[in-house]
């Protein structure tokens, strides 16, 4: 496969007379300094935009839309991981946001992904870089566009695509094996990571359970266009799809890895149209009765699909996420409270219990659990839910900084949840640091070790401890280096500190 890709790239670059290809064993890269012209790049535009090359940079002018951009065709392969980078510059506004994006097509239908984003100040060359794993498509066009600033002229240089092969130390001990006597250790996985089977194999060696980062949230699952068609006959009908989640679910099914579902009901990342007549934003909200029926159909369809396609894979769900307000400890105002009312959480759990398999555990999930007044509001909600008998446990989102891990408060919250007869899940663990200096890495390791010590004390009540990601570079808090593996999937001091507890 690598040889075929190498040959295709080599032929393409010879044809374009300016391409610089460097080849090593099982490694292919593309780089152009535009020393020989446009090098196969062209202006993506409905007309008017044009490109030119001067002093090693390609400039685009005459743009009328943010997607008007310098683009180039690349013969990429699905399931392979690529490192992307480019330098961008603009001289017109104080700051502009740029993206490396991709247009791809399958059976003649074109679709798009935004891969890397960054801001460029006026007059400065700024590097955008990141990694990406393509899904199966017929072709790929990589391009550099703006977010807004539709008419902005800008330049790019040093565009690089590298086929990246991970080199993993096979001697690294396994977290899931080390803590098997205490609780399953898991992580969150994105769609891009799940496409890369080599990366997933490494993850599988470390983690016993995974959670999709975004791929089972309502905005990924709800098919609003199909819902609108159904609503012409029945306002309560719902349509769903699982395109984003399928790579991860399929891998986990085929490799006997358990999945924690995240999330059925959330005020964020839920299309506003879900709450509106005819599923149309701008129309009035539906009645409580219609919304409850939509919620019932939505959860039913999800549970039925998982039972049919992935039986036994999903062992637990976050039914409701982040319903408590930080400042008051009361229910957060949202479309859910507006349309259904303040019992929407109870009703969501009631519906989930009705359709979930009997052995599936149902969780309420939230952050800042150890801080008042939110902690009191969470306990009050859990008390009501426990009384109805449809909840199994509480998910502690555990996003901390190295200077803000309050063990005594976390322990107290664990004890309050356990006193209600509920299970505990550490659902989204990460600890941020300001930089990767030795003192900072040691402080992070100290915090992780103390937390895992606490978790081991409460192991009899814990269903899983899950990091919110594997490597720092792919974390939602990448700039703060919050995880226990670096970008090369090499263990950081925090990994070894945790291991010291069981070795």
Q: What does this protein structure show overall?
A:
It is a single chain. The chain is α/β, with parallel strands linked by helices. It has 2 domains: 2-164, Jelly Rolls (Sandwich); 178-499, TIM Barrel (Alpha-Beta Barrel), CATH 3.20.20. 30% of the residues lie in helices and 29% in strands. The chain has 14 helices and 21 strands. The chain has an 8-stranded parallel β-barrel with strand order 13-14-15-16-17-18-20-21, surrounded by 4 helices. Strands 1, 2, 4, 5, 7, 10 and 12 form a 7-stranded antiparallel β-sheet that branches. Strand 19, helix 12 and strand 20 (423-432) form a beta-alpha-beta unit.
Keywords:
503 residues, alpha/beta, Jelly Rolls, TIM Barrel, 2 domains, eight-stranded parallel beta barrel, seven-stranded antiparallel sheet
Instruction: Provide mean pLDDT, rounded.
Output: 91
Question: Structural class, judged by helices and strands?
Answer: alpha/beta
Strand content: 25-35%
Which outline best applies?
A: globular
Overall tally of structural domains: 2
Report the top-level CATH class of the largest domain: Alpha Beta
Q: Tell me how many strands there are.
A: 21
Question: What's the gyration radius in Å?
Answer: 25 Å
Number of helices: 14
Level-2 CATH architecture of the largest domain: Alpha-Beta Barrel
- What is the third-level CATH name, the topology of the largest domain? TIM Barrel
The residue fraction in helices comes out at 25-40%
By CATH, the superfamily of the largest domain comes out as Glycosidases
Low-confidence stretches: 1-27
The biggest beta sheet is recorded as: 8 strands, parallel, barrel
Q: What separation lies between the terminal Cα atoms? A: 41 Å
The largest beta-sheet arranges its strands as 13-14-15-16-17-18-20-21
């Amino acid at each position: 496969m690598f040889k075929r890709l190498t040959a295709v790239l080599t032929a393409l670059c010879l044809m374009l007379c300016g391409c610089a290809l460097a080849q090593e064993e099982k490694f292919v890269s593309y780089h152009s300094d535009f020393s020989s012209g446009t090098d196969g790049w062209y202006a993506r535009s409905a007309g008017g935009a044009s490109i030119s090359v001067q002093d090693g940079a390609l400039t685009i002018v005459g743009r009328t839309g943010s997607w008007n951009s310098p683009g180039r065709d690349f013969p990429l392969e699905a399931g392979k991981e690529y490192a992307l980078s480019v330098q961008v510059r603009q001289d017109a506004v104080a700051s502009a946001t740029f993206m490396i994006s991709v247009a791809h097509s399958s059976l003649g239908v074109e679709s798009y992904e935004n891969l890397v984003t960054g801001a460029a100040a006026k007059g400065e060359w700024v590097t955008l870089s990141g990694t990406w794993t393509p899904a199966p498509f017929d072709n790929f066009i990589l391009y550099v566009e703006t977010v807004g600033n539709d008419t902005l002229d800008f330049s790019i240089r040093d565009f690089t695509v590298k086929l990246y092969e991970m080199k993993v130390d096979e001697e690294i001990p396994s977290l899931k094996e080390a803590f098997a006597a205490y609780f399953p250790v898991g992580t969150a996985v994105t769609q891009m990571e799940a496409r890369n089977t080599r990366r997933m194999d490494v993850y599988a060696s470390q983690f016993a359970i995974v959670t999709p980062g975004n791929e089972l949230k309502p905005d990924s699952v709800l098919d609003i266009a199909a819902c609108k068609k159904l609503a012409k006959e029945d306002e309560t009908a719902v349509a769903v799809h699982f395109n984003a989640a399928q790579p991860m679910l399929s891998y986990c099914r085929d490799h006997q890895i358990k999945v924690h579902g995240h999330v059925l009901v959330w005020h964020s990342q839920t299309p506003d149209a879900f709450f509106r007549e005819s599923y149309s934003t701008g129309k009035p909200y539906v009645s409580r009765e219609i919304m409850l029926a939509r919620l019932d159909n939505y959860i039913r369809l999800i549970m039925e699909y998982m039972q049919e396609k992935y039986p036994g894979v999903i062992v637990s769900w976050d039914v409701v996420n982040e319903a408590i307000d930080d400042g008051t400890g009361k229910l957060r105002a949202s479309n859910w409270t507006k349309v259904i009312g303040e019992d929407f959480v109870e009703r969501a759990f009631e519906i989930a219990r009705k359709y979930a398999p009997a052995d599936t555990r149902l969780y309420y999930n939230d952050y800042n659990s150890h801080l008042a007044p939110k902690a009191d509001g969470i306990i009050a909600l859990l008390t009501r839910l426990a009384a109805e008998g449809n909840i199994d446990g509480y998910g502690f989102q555990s996003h901390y900084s190295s200077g803000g891990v309050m063990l005594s408060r976390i322990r107290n919250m664990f004890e309050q949840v356990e006193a209600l007869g509920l299970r505990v899940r550490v659902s989204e663990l990460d600890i941020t640091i300001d930089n990767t200096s030795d003192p900072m890495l040691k402080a992070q390791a100290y915090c992780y070790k103390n937390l895992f010590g606490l978790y081991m004390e409460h192991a009899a009540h814990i269903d899983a401890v899950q990091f919110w990601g594997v490597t720092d570079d792919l974390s939602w808090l990448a700039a703060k280096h919050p995880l226990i593996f670096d970008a090369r999937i090499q263990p950081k001091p925090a990994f070894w500190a945790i291991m010291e507890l069981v070795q």
